[in-house]
Amino acid sequence: MCSSTLEGNMEYDYIIVGGGSAGCVLANRLSANSDRQVLLLEAGPVDSHPYIKIPAAFYKLFKSKIDYGFYTEPQACAANRKLFVPRGKTLGGSGAINAMIYMRGHRADFDGWAAAGNKGWSYDEVLPYFKRSECNGSFQGNDFHGQTGEWHISSQQPHPLTQLYLAAAKDAGHAELADFNADADAGVGIHQANIKNGKRHSPAHAFLVPARGRENLTIKTGLQVERLQLDGARVTGVWVQLHGRMHLIKVRKEVIVTAGSIHSPLLLLRSGIGDHHYLQSIGIAPQHHLPGVGHNLQDHPVAPLIYRTVRRASLDSADNLWNLSRWLFTQKGPFTSNLAEGGGFLRSRPDLPAPDLQLHFAPAFFVDHGFNKPKGNGMSLAPILLQPKSRGRVSLDPSNFHKPLIDPQVFQVAEDLQLLRTGFKMALQIMQQEVLAPWRKGLFMPQSALEDDAAIDQYLRENVELLYHPVGTCKMGNDAQAVVDDQLRIHGLEGIRIADASIMPTITRGNTQAPTIMIAEKAADMLLGRGVI
Ligand SMILES: Cc1cc2nc3c(=O)[nH]c(=O)nc-3n(C[C@H](O)[C@H](O)[C@H](O)COP(=O)(O)OP(=O)(O)OC[C@H]3O[C@@H](n4cnc5c(N)ncnc54)[C@H](O)[C@@H]3O)c2cc1C
Asked: Omega of the bond prior to 446 within 30 degrees of 0, cis?
């Protein structure tokens, strides 16, 4: 049942705060047994926006009523620019507006989490959780993929330009990878995506739709959790506001926070959980001193490298009524593309244990998050920094405790800029290959060749963006900045866990939705007292 009223039961076994990528998985898993009463609270509306289902329309949801549409604080090392931070606000969360690339990350990511003292999080230990949620239509009969999960993952039919990108990357010396998620390393290939029969298979569609008929699962949309109720060291409920009045909903077992990397720390801070001095300085009564809340923010910096192509060579010509109708009636054609069709992982130095750069190729212009649609046709290759050393912070706007101040500190560590420069040069080398010559019509971004490293650095500062992957603001671990332990329990509190992208101690080498869904799967087992699957 889905509603935004508050009649009836005001006490549940489990309350899940945030119906995004992680929250949808947990709602499904926790309500699987009818003995448990589960409440899912989502601040946004139901996921009925027509563009959610159309893969190629994902960027048209930016700044819509289902996107929080945040901006960062001015970034001192990125020409003082404010960078766009879209975040989904609907059932499915950011998974309802994202680019659908299915990417788990590198073995070294999870082994690194485990080596930092997080027991149970090594690659071999998390692999079963990736497989549990997955129904892979293309890669079957191997040790890396699942076929019985709810979330449909499929291979796409790439655009001819994407095929040419692949050929160019191979000519530039990069190996081709058939499957990025089979314990793969460096190489280039075509992305798999959570697309089913030409439509986005969002986390809400995959995990909530099969569960929403269960009588023991209550889904409330349009209800934002204002703060947590703490009785001593135990969380006993959540406060929501409806029609100007505050209501307490009590919890018998646990509250699970899945509000995402921006909102999970905000909720904790509003509840007085965070650094004592900071909370006092903004007028919030401290309840539980936890200095790491909101710190350790990481995202993937990305740079645009965009060329004009010859007429009608790219997907830019396909954005028309004919193709929209084709998608509406048959779910076929160019609107089934997630745009970021091609990919790759590169090492900036051969001696590195794992790739440190990623590539996304779109057979189209992707300028200013899609807000700017140049005339004609283009193709975009974006080099991405996989393991930035800079660390940022999410905090509360003192004038409005519902607004975040997002400060990722892009390029604050100079090495990050140098490494993205290397990635930019590697991307240029691919785009300059002969095989693309008949299609390339000249540079669009940058407008002309950049003469030296200083010019590249200036271009990067003036054009770097974030790949919409904020993580780490409620970090898992045992050090002074850690917010949750390896069972995802908030240090020093009972009756509450955090189970979303915010718990990642370090950002994964790749897109962040699949690892977030893995985290939620693992959290469900912890909550239900199940051992390793
Ligand atoms: C534009 C875009 C493109 C992306 N592309 C990709 C991609 O191609 N592949 C990939 O792997 N990853 C991608 N990502 C990243 C991926 O979508 C996220 O890492 C993932 O969805 C994070 O899941 P989450 O559960 O942590 O948070 P979210 O999915 O953001 O969910 C949080 C939910 O909590 C709700 N909420 C917040 N506060 C409250 C409150 N106080 N009370 C109640 N509800 C609340 C929000 O409304 C939201 O619905 C992209 C993200 C974006 C935005």
From this structure: yes
Share of the chain above pLDDT 90, in %: 95
In this prediction, residues 157-170 reach a mean pLDDT of 97
At 88-103, the pLDDT tens digits run: 999 999 999 999 999 9
The confidence band for 244, taking pLDDT boundaries of 50, 70 and 90, is confident
User: In terms of CATH architecture, what is 1-107+203-298+471-533?
Assistant: 3-Layer(bba) Sandwich (3.50)
Burial of 148 (0-12, 13-18, 19+ CB in 10 A): exposed
Tell me the best of 40, 371, 513, 517 to mutate to test the pocket of ligand 1, counting ligand atoms within 8 Å of each CB and taking the most.
513
Catalytic-role residue among 49, 159, 469, 491: 469
Average the pLDDT over 42-58 and give the result.
97
* CA 82 to centroid of chain Cα atoms: 19
| CA atoms within a 13 Å half-sphere pointing along the CA-CB vector of 50 | 4
469 among known catalytic residues: yes
Mean pLDDT of 266-284: 98
- pLDDT class of 142 with cuts at 50, 70, 90: confident
pLDDT for residue 85 is more than 70 = yes
* CA–centroid distance, residue 41 to ligand 1 (Å): 15
**Pocket lined around ligand 1, Cβ cut-off 6 Å:** 17-23, 41-44, 86-89, 93-95, 97-101, 103, 224-225, 258-261, 263, 267, 468-469, 500-501, 511-514, 516
CATH topology of domain 157-190+301-385+411-463: Cholesterol Oxidase; domain 2 (3.30.410)
Structure tokens at 262: 């921006």
Closest CA to 337 of 205, 191, 118, 220: 191
Residue 163 is which amino acid? Q
- The label of the residue with tokens 């945040």 reads 70
Q: Which residue has the tokens 């095989």?
A: 435
97's tokens = 């507006």
Q: Which of 170, 144, 169, 25 minimizes the C-alpha distance to 93? A: 25
